[in-house]
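REVIEWER CHECKLIST
Item 1: Sequence provided? yes
Item 2: Single chain? yes
Item 3: Sequence as submitted:
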Amino acid sequence: MNTNQNFLAVIKVVGVGGGGVNAVNRMIERGLKGVEFIAVNTDAQALLMSEADVKLDVGRQLTRGLGAGADPEVGRKAAEDHAEEIEEALAGADMVFVTAGEGGGTGTGGAPVVARIAKSIGALTIGVVTKPFGFEGKRRALQADAGIAALRSEVD
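Item 4: Structure as written out by the authors:
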C-alpha cells in the first residue's frame, strides 16, 4: 500500500461555458493526469462532445439546452439553479481551478457561481480566463471585464 497517496491534494478543473469546456477538452487531449475534469455548460450539444469526467448540463429549464445566448445573467441563473449539483461535483476537492472564456453568457455569468461554491466547501479556488479578441466588439469586451471582476471577488 502506498501511504503517500493519502497526502495528495484532490484537484478539480472546472470548465464553465464554451470556452471553459474547450480548455478542459484541450487539457484532456494533452494527457494531463492527476486531476478530475468537470464540464459545466448550458449548451447540451457542446457538453456531449466533452471528454470530461463529470458533465453538468445547467439551466435545462431556463435554456432548454440551447446555451445562454451570450447573456451573463442567463449563465449566472443557470449555475445558481444547479448549485447543489455543482457542489456535489466539487465535493472533496482541496483545490479547484475554474476556467472560462469571458465575454459570453455561461462562462461569464456561471464561473463566479462555481468559484463561490468551491470556496464555500473550503477548496483553494483559482480562476483562469481568456478575454475576447478586439474584433469581437465592445459589448463583449465590457461583459468580459464585468465577468472578470465578478470572478476575481470569488476566488483566492
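Item 5: Key structural point noted by reviewer: The first helix runs from residue 17 to 29.
Item 6: Recommendation: ____
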